[in-house]
Amino acid sequence: MTMRIYIFIAILFCLHFISIQAQKGLPSLVNISNKEYNAGSKNYDLIQDHRGIIHVANQDGILSFDGTYW
What is the pLDDT of residue 53? Predict the structure, then answer.
């Protein structure tokens, strides 16, 4: 019975470190002010097209972001 407990604890220990390794690749979030893209302060929806351009539905129209420029 005690050998099963040791095996169970060893498996949990290994799974704990596997889950920690999976967390390293998360992207960082950046808060962009509406003064940077010169449009309204309310954004309603966004979508990314096949080229990687992000389109944002804004209260003043549609904004496009290529990763560097609005």
Answer: 93
Q: Give pTM, 2 decimals.
A: 0.55
DSSP3 helix / strand / coil % (the chain, rounded to 5): 40, 25, 35
Task: For tokens 């302060």, name the residue.
Answer: 41
Give 12's pLDDT tier (boundaries 50, 70, 90).
confident
Q: How many CB atoms are closer than 10 A to CB 56?
A: 18
User: Cα dist. 40→2, 61, 63 in Å?
Assistant: 65, 8, 10
